[in-house]
Amino acid sequence: MEEDGEGKIKPRQGRLEAFGMRVGEFLGNTTQVAQRTLRWFTVSEERVAEILAAVREELPTTEALLIGKPQAGKSSIVRGLTGVSAEIVGQGFRPHTQNTQRYAYPSEELPLLIFTDTVGLGDINQNTEGLIDELLGDLAQETKRARVLILTVKINDFATDTLRQIGERLRKQYPMVPCVLAVTCLHEVYPGALVEHPPYPPDLPEVERVLTAIQGDFAGLCDRTVLLDFTLEEDGFTPVFYGLEALRDTLADLLPEAEAKAIYQLLDEGAGEQLGTLYRDVGRRYILAFSVMAATVAAVPLPFATMPVLTTLQVSLVGVLGQLYGQTLTPSQAGGVVSAIAGGFLAQAIGRELIKFIPGLGSVVAASWAAAYTWALGEGACVYFGDLMGGKKPDPQKIQGVMREAFDAAKQRFN
Ligand SMILES: Nc1nc2c(ncn2[C@@H]2O[C@H](COP(=O)(O)OP(=O)(O)OP(=O)(O)O)[C@@H](O)[C@H]2O)c(=O)[nH]1
Ligand SMILES: [Mg+2]
């Protein structure tokens, strides 16, 4: 292991506030082995920044440019693909420019998905040129990210001239960027008697007729069309995300292999069924994204030992989860939480196993192990933050238990 005692993550200047104190108490419960393990798993702040930059370079990041009129369903697509609302995805979100906003998932510093959302596209819009310029400027930037245009149209909206013009301009200049036509709000044209979605894809003359017209309007512009109906839970349609699998498959077909694989992993396991609103469920979507990253980076050679890279990912994950639970953590504090949780877990749950591997641990770990370990840590952090939020003292025993279970389940999943 490259990391040693010099410059690990420490709370700054003895400014251990309430949060850090709790971490301290928590730490007090870990064994000596854990304390030792902790040292192996700490990473200096400068190193964290370096690692983040290197990891970001390797991530199979997809940038989706969502273009559509207000209320066309763009934010709903963000919610479908990430499991969280655009407002939550947008935490740490900066207004991009006048006509577009940008959201990064799961986080700005380590994005797997970036959404550029047009906000200024009206019917009669003097800003169209400005918007086109912004989008062209976006596309002009050199990047390793895979990009895709998603033109979003409500199924009963035929006033789509501006959208088509924008699409044409972008396509003309960037013909290599694939383009998807996403037709939303399907149920609005269902015959009155139909109160549920038919099996996907819907085979209804009403849908077919309108779709033919829309496709005519966008002829030659889009590589693929996807039919969607992303309703709200209270609308009572099942699945809530009707067409999500088709969207996933379409994106996967159009994107390079690595990005396609990441999207598959992110939308694994019935993501379209239902979305919980509980913290834990939202948290899981973030944990999943970081676990996918952990597997990704474990599989590529980075100029750092794997363990510090995982620790760095986990520090970021804990920072994001903390935010979800209303705790704003400095990287140092997040590092403290990771150390406390990871140290205890590694020592107590798989300590013996681990000791055997420690000489090799710093250099290479299996992708599935990296993912499962990250998953377990995220689950542990949710319990930790949940307890804090409920005014309880985090219970190390409970956290260890949750992590052990999560680790075993995740090992299966990421195998
Ligand atoms: N039934 C149904 N409702 C949808 C669908 N997509 C979006 N909606 C609803 O339409 C409304 C607008 O959807 P958004 O996803 O916020 O649309 P938007 O394009 O982001 O809108 P702006 O941010 O205002 O430009 C919300 O109430 C959504 O729940 C869909 O496919 N089916
Ligand atoms: Mg929106």
From TrEMBL:
The keyword tRNA-binding does not apply. It holds the Pfam family MMR_HSR1. Keywords: Membrane, Transmembrane, Transmembrane helix. Residues 65-173 form the G domain. SUPFAM superfamilies: P-loop containing nucleoside triphosphate hydrolases (SSF52540). The chain crosses the membrane at residues 286-304, 324-347, 354-376. The keyword RNA-binding does not apply. InterPro entries: GTP-bd, P-loop_NTPase. This is 50S ribosome-binding GTPase. It comes from Spirulina subsalsa FACHB-351.
